[in-house]
Design goal:
Blueprint (H helix, E strand, L loop, with lengths): L1 H11 L5 H10 L2 H7 L4 H17 L5 H13 L11 H13 L10 H19 L5 H8 L11 H12 L1
Helix pairs in contact: 4-5, 4-9, 5-8, 5-9, 7-8
Length: about 160
């Protein structure tokens, strides 16, 4: 619970720097940048932090895997764009999730759907914009899977770094 309180305050005070924004523009293509910069600033901050964690832990990854995983980190939550999720509604969703033992996805309100479905929504956004990298789409689609059920090493690293941040 303390983690969630810290997460809330971190989100309402989130900022990014010009250097970080320039870096994102170097990593992502034009359509991906458009999606990324459509995220609220606290989600941008979170995604940058996930990418930075991956940079620290990348270890034995080859250059292509590393670059793909950094992109996945920056784009993993783009399914939250224009969904009504904000620090308050996310807090409500987290509380709802604690009591939703079957993980049944409610039909309303929209922000609760987005909380559960944002990985798939993100994949839809990328596919609509012509991004067909199957590994990138796989990583984004599955980034909320239980880490102990995952065998793909790239996905494990993304999940680990997402959970840290």
């Amino acid at each position: 619970m303390v983690y969630r309180v810290k997460q809330f305050f971190k989100s309402i005070t989130a900022k990014t720097t010009e250097d970080e924004e320039m870096w994102v523009k170097k990593v992502l293509n034009g359509q991906q940048q458009k999606l990324f910069f459509s995220l609220p600033i606290y989600e941008q901050r979170h995604s940058i932090d996930v990418a930075k964690s991956i940079m620290k832990k990348a270890g034995q990854l080859n250059k292509d895997e590393y670059n793909l995983l950094i992109k996945a980190a920056l784009l993993h939550d783009i399914g939250k764009v224009n969904t009504g999720l904000n620090p308050i509604t996310k807090s409500i969703a987290v509380i709802y999730d604690c009591f939703n033992s079957r993980k049944k996805i409610p039909s309303k309100p929209k922000f609760l759907q987005a909380y559960y479905l944002h990985p798939d929504l993100g994949v839809e956004f990328l596919q609509r914009d012509g991004d067909a990298n199957k590994t990138l789409l796989f990583l984004i689609s599955n980034h909320h899977q239980p880490i102990d059920k995952v065998s793909n090493e790239l996905l494990k690293l993304l999940i680990e770094c997402d959970e840290e941040n």
